[in-house]
Structures
1.
Amino acid sequence: MAPKKDPKAAVKKAEPAKPAAAAAAPAPAPEPAAPPAAPAVDLAAVKIEFTPDQMEDYKEAFGLFDRVGDAKVAFSQIADIMRALGQNPTNKEVTKLLGNPSADDMHAKRVDFEGFLPMLQTIMNSPNKAQFEDYVEGLRVFDKEGNGTVMGAELRIVLSTLGEKMNEMEVDALMAGQEDENGCINYEAFVKHIMSV
Amino acid sequence: MGCGVSKSNHFHKTHGKKALRAAVLIQRWYRQYVARLEMRRRYTWHIFQSVEYSGEQAQIKLHNFLCYLMDNFTPASNERNLISHIFRDNEVCRDPEWERYFCYKNIEVPELYSGPHLIFPLTMDQAIGLVDAFRNKKQLHSRYLLQLLLETWKQIRMLPNINRISTCHSKEITICGDLHGQLEDLLLIFYKNGMPSLEKPYLFNGDFVDRGKDSIEILIIMFSFLLVYPGEVYLNRGNHEDHIVNLRYGFTKEVLTKYKMHGKRILKLLQKIFSWLPLATTIDHKVLVLHGGISDTTDLGLLARVDRHHYVSALRPPKNRPKSVAEMSIDSDVSRDLFHNKRRNSVTYPKSLVSRDSFQNRSLQDFSKIKGEDELDTQSVCSPRRDRAEKGCADSVSLESINCEEEWKQILDLLWSDPMSKDGCVPNEVRGGGCYWGPDVTEDFLNKHNLQLLIRSHECKQEGYEFCHNRKVLTLFSASNYYDVGSNRGAYVKLGPDLVPYVIQYQANSMTRKLTVRQSVRQTEGSAIKVLREQLFSHKSDLICAFKKFDSENTGLCFVSVNDWACAVEGVMSLGLPWRVMRSQLVKCKTNDSMIDYNEWFHELAIKGSSADHIDQSLLETLYRHQATLETIFRIVDLDNSGFITMKDFVQTWRLLSSFLKLEITDQAIADLAIDIDQNNDGSIDIEEFMEAFRLTDKKSRLERGRSMFMGTATDLTKLEGDPNI
């Protein structure tokens, strides 16, 4: 194997089955299907309703993502931390919360735990909560034959071309070991499996 | 797939909006899954690291204790006699005596031996033959091994403290980090990159041994290539190239197991070789490669001048040695019995560890304080090369001592330090030796020595490598799956005349590549959590004490809030782990969402099925907690390395341990334990069997093997010292 010039590129190419969202790598930038930008959220006005216990929990998790040691995390990590805490925002929602920063800002700017809390609260307050059934329904859309399975290949296309597109590595990681010998996925089982993380 | 695709397109057009919503939903949910996985991966990593560093600290504390024993117990005491031999330096001093002691010539190689035969001087074919033989699980006969080691020693004695390599003639240098006895990784590197040759120089950056199971084979391969290509193979010393560290971390055991008859001699010779390994390497005067790191006082000029072989173990502060002129030989490291001179006895116990950020804790540096000139009533010379044998005045003697201490600190820093993200330089109290150094120190150091890059190893990294300090420092780690199957990749670096590092990653064991990320996180996490749960159980009494403190109303009920639980656990375990995040993994039982029934919890954690149900509970706890320390002491006590110790020594060992830990263990309890173990009543105890009897899990994962290193964290040892109730 020829050595690669840029170590960062080597990381990406080396092993295929790695999820792209490891470490501080941000998810790909959102592509809004709908017309853009409602005004930015006023974070100062958000009332924090977490119990002290919850705040301790969140603080610990927050600390896990601080790789630099300054008790802050980069903008690009915010979405991931929220997800790690059980929330499910779209990248678009998070970017809006952060005031639609530039790509550079996403990496460079950092926020501390106190700044993070109102963001988390906003997301938690938002009504867009999906349950197991919603996910199954979502996948059922692609169940053309109505037999409880979707075509793996079709799902790949959808996920990489629509909405907040996933890249090839992410799709591979998601689908790993899920397709049967006909390339089909039983989606109820799929959802159960993924939700059991 | 042609018609399939167009069918899909049609399908999407008709269900456009629905499809889009569904896609976004799945994507969101996938990203949540990945984020949660990432969080689990992170805390799993923290667990491993804490475990590893705690073990290192515990080892240092044990070692300090042994030094203390040496200094403060009378020579006649039983305890001291048990351990004094490890402090006795090589008794053989002159070169011909060395050759005689390590003579391999009368070792016969039996006809049945199917391993490789070596004929010196070694050739490339033989070196390659060795690699093949080890790939096929052969073992090199002790005769050839001793011969190889002798030749290696002769070769590396001639090397400078700091190797200098140049990349002229467009040669690319391959640099490897820690291997830790993982032969599979070395074979993988050779497979991907080719073996060392005139066109392919290699630099190995320390920590070749310990933890993995093929340390000796790795050394054999490296030394062979070094002998065949002395201008193309370079070795830097690591903190594990140290016989005291080896006692705990498996290399000593490996050698004694594989070489039952001659193991002791082999180890002694290796001890010498380790002390002669160069300390660092420069490439084109621009890139510096060393094992651990630097400090704000690192002085390459000084390091180039020290007599490196005097520092047989970086864990031991330098002694003042009496030497007469007649005894000086170029590499003698003789020492009279320590108690012939007045020794400093200022060795004190370190303070307890508070957190990674605090530097209240003592580190090894504190143990070399010299009391005063009047204590040094004999001539002592640090360096026989310098012509100071004649000087008798106290001033120069103490100057020598200070120089020794300074040199020792420099070497310690080189082999044990870690980078940190904040500016400055503070003692590395997590490891117990060396420093944490910041980006400003890197900047100053590189400028001062006109360097552009520092390559080091010493720390496991998930990707096998990591840049820091504005890409001026590169950490390189070559032992993949170090903590457990799937835990991390390994990497090596190629450096050409442009001095831009090209990194190549790999992961041994094809199984791991096939595991999905989720499976490998799950597996690794499983091991880590299992170990943590055992640790928690083995600290049961301390934890119960801590929980009771939160029962301010003295209800006597065994409930504690989640908050208090997390506080108490961190207070007792001191690992800096995210206990709340891991709570659901550690506490399966719960009364309700905010309270934990800790009695219930301990039942759940209880180590089941051990063979020791009838043994005194507190003794058992001690055993679980200090298993590695106990085993280390056993190995020290086992003078003839037979794997057996007498009943008498067994009892003595426990006495030693209990005085170290300041625990009350009655003689009766120890006797009970001994009788239980000495099943054939022959008055001797098989160390392995003893350790096995109390081993709690199967040996599959490395962490579980390494689990014993963790047991008996340094913190609980130091806590005992401060606690007036004990």
Note: Chain A touches chain B through 70 residues (CB under 8 Å).
2.
Amino acid sequence: MSVSTASYLARRAAQKERVRILYRRALKDTLNWAVHRHLFYSDADALREKFEANKHVEDIELIDRMIAAGEAEHNKWRHPDPYIVPWAPGGSKFCRNPTPPLGIEIIHNYGMEERE
Amino acid sequence: MASALRSAILRHIRVPVTNSLSLSGSAVRSMSSHGDDHLDKQAVIDRVIHVVKSFPKVDPSKVTPDVHFQKDLGLDSLDTVEIVMALEEEFKLEIPDKEADKIDSCHLAIEYIHNHPIAN
């Protein structure tokens, strides 16, 4: 398998994207677990060290296995009640006040039409 | 029968007639609980640059509204992820994973936040 085939590069790019998304989710979970900022910073640094330690691995199969192991570990540590922004799906304000359908208007002189 | 009752009541009670302004033009947006204030673009740019400058691995003097995180500032892809998370916290947004992966420069971040209807 030559180093510069397009499929190799595509596979490496897909792996890098998986790593980035895994890092993002792991960081959000760290924030969910460690609410106080000083604890979060130390935990985030430890997480970053774990990712940096495997930065220079070159073997594709090994990278795949490591990503799968990382995702399994992330699933084990997922928070049961994560913080979700209120208006996002799963948040507390989601679909709370949807915009009313078009054509609805407030009638201000209800009951007084005959007087006019 | 209801109208007779209504007019009987109204004969005895003085109900002030309010100014019957037709609100149908702005009623749709004014009834929703959020998302009706679009942020000013310059305010978005200022806040984004402030967030990027306070990132510890970034040199504050190099930050401009067009800077690319990896090419100009010399950051890692994991650092880009951290910056996007900091922007999410600043603007109280929830960016889906696929979209967040594509935000690579200040310019893209400003565009995305400015076009987001609920950015606060």
Note: Chain A touches chain B at residues 16-17, 19-21, 23-25, 27-28, 48, 51-52, 84-85, 87-88, 91, 93, 96-100, 102-106, 108-109, 111-112, 114-115 (CB under 8 Å).
3.
Amino acid sequence: MDVEGEVPASAAAAVANGLGGGSEASPAPFSAEQLDVEAYSSQYSGRTRLARLLFVADRCGIEAMQLEALRMAYDDIKKGEDVQLHRDVALKINGRLGPRYGLDQAWVDAVSRRAEQRKEKLENELNGYRTNLIKESIRMGYNDIGDFFYAHGQLSDAFKSYIRTRDYCTTSKHIVQMCMNVILVSIELGQFTHVTNYVSKAEQTPDSLDPIIVAKLRAAAGLANLAQKKYKVAARKFVETGIELGNNYSEVIAPQDVAVYGALCALASFDRSDLKSKVIDNINFRNFLELVPEVRELVNDFYASRYGSCLGHLEKLKANLLLDIHLHEHVETLYRDIRHKAIIQYTLPFISVDLNTMATAFMTSVSMLEKELAALITENKIQARIDSHNKILYARHADQRNTTFQRVLQTGNEFERDVKSMLLRANLLKHEYIQRTGPRKM
Amino acid sequence: MESLEALVAHIQGLSGSPEERAHLHGLLKQADGDSLRAHAAALVPFLAQLSPAAHSLGYLYLLEACVTSGANLSEFGGGDFLVTVADFLTSCSTDQIRLAPDKFLNVCRVLKDQVMQLNTPIRGIAPLRVAVRKIQASPEQLTPVHADYLLLCLLAKQYKAGLSVLEDDIFEVDQPKDLFLYCYYGGMIYIGLKKFAKALELLHNAVTAPMSSLNAIAVEAYKKYILVSLIQNGQVPSFPKYTSATAQRNLKNHAQIYVELSTCYGNGRYTELETFIESNAASFQSDNNLGLVKQVLSSMYKRNIQRLTQTYLTLSLEDIARSVQLDTPRDAEMHVLRMIEDGEIHATINQKDGMVSFHEDPEQYKSVEMVDHIDSSIQRLTALSKKLASIDENMACDPAYLLKTGRDRGGRFDYDDFDNAPHKYF
């Protein structure tokens, strides 16, 4: 991959501008070029890094990239203690990377044994604390068990342990810690309703929170809403995420992700004024956007009605976005929404639009465009009519007077019909109508 | 028990004034019964002595005895008995027969049966139409004769004759079975006349009438309701809140293929619908609904073309054919032409270019006819509102009602009690 040299330089400059320090200069993965697996994964830590690497390996379809991802995943897993993941990765590699990257049974056994021992120890300690009824120790005990399960990939057990600490939390700091743990596990489990709940719980603590924590919570909330397809809310959460997030939440999300997710959701769901005030003029979010210059260009193009180049940027980004674990299932929907919005916005200021010019602006053929427009008109998103003979789109404003008359007559008819049948039914009931079960066939 | 001659003499003598008639009525009631029927055969010559118009009540009793005697009516009077009955129905006096309504209804029923047996339903139409008007206490009342009359009209294919009876609104019903039959036959008559909107109203009443147990008429009515809904509106509405629970639960089970038909229609693909109909043709035929189902099929084209008028100003015939799934542009042209002639869309066909231009509805709501139409609608609706208000008032004064609501609410009255008009229309 020879483009590696170029990308980090520009991105490093961008990072220096926006973040000013922090951890290593991470190149922007969401660029038009092919995904650099190593750079991509270096943005993350913990289990999300493994999950993302595996996802990329599954989806990318390019052998070299796949092997690269699997190799890195293998190395990382060896540093951890998750036996099941080790098995999975070994299976996937299937011997393609040589003998060093096969199933290491010895390591597996050693780790499992150690895990058993540690688990027993932790459980004994916890029982001890429970009999002593020292709240703080019990809480720490459950926390430790939760961490243990998490490291070993037993996520639902980890979840349960973290939830248990709730009863023993005394200060708001404890509560926040518990919420963050739960959120982390829930995101990985994909249970985004829990994420939303615990985010609101954490935000409601009486003490004021550390801005980094606030940013983390916002990002998590955005992620939850994205998964639940509530794009507008997700966009709002993402653009409100403070820049303090930096690389502090790398076990879940990278700042570039915040930028991309936020921008795409905003483009798909915000109206023009919101887009201007919350995204383009938002100084805070601008810092994020600097990390992914392509996306920044995209947003500006959309706002300036340069739809051709905007859609072009989107197409280039698509391949890499499909490799992202949180975004991949929403890419199609978001793209479609953005495209529709672009078309609607294009036609809004005009009384008549020549379909040929519009087709070149949107880089599509006239017949495809006509079909798209017909669909939008049927959904009542555009008030217009197509002159298929001359290939012109005419704006159409409903005649208020006529529609009022029509509606009046219709309401009158419905009223008459409904009242008559109602009187009839009332009469039937009045005679205390009991209907005999008649013969089966008339 | 008097002899027949004496009875006839009484009838002739006491049919003058209302008091006499009341006395006569008493006598007749005494004389009534199986004994009279036993002499049925002998009654016929006596009938000739009486005049149906002046002696309606007595005539009625004797006539009813004859017809319910169980003897074969075609033997009576050499097959002209039908004429006698028809005569009576046409010329009898309204006040007199109202004293013995159930006998009158029996006579009508027998007439209908006889006419159907002889396979000449058309003979029964005129007498029954008169009979309907005579027996009705008010134009808003439903009688069993209504249902019989509509049935005869249907069988004789004289749909227009049925219209005169259907145009009255019915508000009072004694027998539930009559209502179902009335709505069902009435719906069928309107379908025959292609007045689908009115058919839909009647069938809707049949389907949503209060019923504690399912009846076959409602099931058949529901099947036709689905089909007419599809033709008229393109979709079948869900049951409104006031439908009885029995209907909501059970009707769909009995009309399964119709429900599937409506979902297939909703998908909008003509060929699918066609194959579905062909595969189920036998069951549609056995319900006698195949003709209606075919109309549903052709309505699908119409609906698709109408949707196009919403989106396009001009469209080529090939594009129309493609989007509506017709085979050739010629077919498309024919369909569009027919729809223009029926007034269902407003368009012009340009044959040179092969283009169709769609226009807006030219109705400007400025003409005199439109003003008249609106005016009459307003008057009709005001009258209806007044009626509704008066019924509501009556009910609010009803002691049983007050007792029940008073008990529920503990005697307090809120602002809501003083509000009469339905909120939906604000």
Note: The CA atoms of residues 280 and 286 of chain B lie 10 Å apart.
4.
Amino acid sequence: MIKFFLMVNKQGQTRLCKYYEHVETNKRTLLETEVIKSCLSRSNEQCSFIEFKDFKLIYRQYAALFIVVGVNDTENEMAIYEFIHNFVEVLDEYFSRVSELDIMFNLDKVHIILDEMVLNGCIVETNRARILAPLLILDKMSES
Amino acid sequence: MSATTVVPQLVQILRTLVTTGYSTEHSISGVSDPFLQVQILRLLRILGRNHEESSETMNDLLAQVATNTDTSRNAGNAVLFETVLTVMDIRSAPGLRVLAVNILGRFLLNNDKNIRYVALTSLLRMVQSDHSAVQRHRPTVVECLRDPDASLSRRALELSLALVNSSNVRAMTQELQSFLESCPPDLRADCASGILLAAERFAPTKRWHIDTILRVLTTAGTYVRDDAVANLTQLIGGAQELHAYSVRRLYSALAEDISQQPLVQVAAWCIGEYGDLLLEGSCEETEPLQVEEEEVLALLEKVLQSHMSLPATRGYALTALMKLSTRLRGDSSRIRQVVSIFGSCLDVELQQRAVEYNTLFRKYDHMRAAILEKMPLVERGGPQVDGEAEESKETQLSETALVSTEPQASKLLDLLDLLDGTSGDAQPPPLLDPSPGGTLIHLLDLPCAPPPPPSIPDLRVFEREGLQLSLSFVRPPGTPALLLITVTATNTSGADVTHFICQAAVPKSFQLQLQAPSGDTVPAQDGLPVTQLLRILNPNKAPLRLKLRLTYNHFGQSVQEIFEVNNLPVETWQ
């Protein structure tokens, strides 16, 4: 089960956070700072899976943005690693060459995409066309 | 739908996914919908666990997936990883298991760190069940130890420790020790204790064992567990022929570095015990080392004065100095001086030791040699190779503890029966043997299962209107002059007896001690009796005479009675 999904930039500012298991608001910032600290301190040579408290962290770096997913023991780490890339590709298709600014200014759309893909900590949809279909319909409605 | 119907369907779906190619939208880098594949495999794993039939249906499919998946991209590797996990968990054919281990071996050789990490984790899980298969990949695992990545080296360390067995123990400990020298501090404690444990279980010779422990202590001394010191001293003590060798090695190690506390403690102990062997001459196993008495004493003094030494270490060094005073041929004035300085040390433990040793020098010099001679082998309490010996010792200890609590428990139960039961039976039934009086108060004084003294019959001495007084006697076997009498007052009448006081008098040659009574009210209708213990010392073994005086209130009247106890049994005073 996926416990949380974070997008944090190199300066430590959280661009997106989604928790699939309830964590109190004041504890969230603490968790995020610790997570980003352990991810930032690693070099390119080291592997992308970290053991952190009682769950595993799988992170991937895209330019200045870190995407970190925290999972429990039962998940396949490599599948989650692939899933992160899949998510970024979906964003890429929707925003056409996505950057950090796109995510900052369209946070609601990014949340909708993530909600289509992950439900209650389980991956439910990975097909790009199907994920983006409701969003494209919404866009069409708002234009007309 | 039961598992048996679902599994063939799942197998069918997965087969179509793998072979025919689902749809281009769902394919990720050449693998058709890896997420779905992974989920199906996970479900198959859960269904196939401990289920013969389902496992058989899956065997072919798993082999097909394992061979057909493209491993050049990460997605393919993810599917392969999940397949390996599934093969490990279900009741698969042995050929399939070998295939799984080979896949993991291939992962280990891959350059990508993620894949290596994942392979090490799954190998760790497999090492319990398929030990020999994993052994084949031992060289690669050892390679991974040297990886700069912290999580990778931690995994590799755990796996290497699990892979050590009696045939490869020398090579493995060599590798692990070189790792210990260079590893990050948080892994050192685990590595050190792992090496020590492996050495204990698989040591080919005692000398090798001692060497290994020595090396661990010199490299990572501060990180070892506390019982390592005790284990090493026990080990050295047991290896008779290696005393000279070990004391020399320890002396040279200590001479170089006195900061690592466990090393210093063991070295100090050894030098103290086997100091004469250190000084006497050459030992064929190490280079000839000429050591003077002065040097040894100087080194121990340095340990004592160093601010890096813990109080425990100083204790070791002080005792070692004392032992040397008998072993060395020179005079012991220098040692006496040092010991007397510590007589005013602020640490209470050290001060006590120093004062005791000082007294040993001054007043009991003739006993010094006898007291300080070589120690016999200490009984081992910790983990050992023949675990049965330790377990039997533990069960013995727990059995004796059990046995000693049982008599007390049974006595308590009998007493409760006594107090609850007996209507109309005024005299308390003959009491159980070892209990002096068998009353609740004295239960707490009971020793653990002593041999029962011969029982003296009870005596009823007084009876008036329902109030009865009886005496019970015990002669404890350890003290022949002592007699314990318990005076028990019971009341069978309808009214309570209050303000009950019992006093006793004996002839002048005896010593009498009256202990406090259990109460001063004897409730009616066989309520809780009042008891009182009398201790009589009879050193001359004269015939016993006892006079009792009772005062109490009964039926609204105050009563006073004085009488002498006749027909005391002979056993009470002989």
Note: The beta strands of chain B are 27-28, 31-32, 459-464, 467-474, 482-491, 497-505, 511-514, 530-537, 546-554, 557-565.
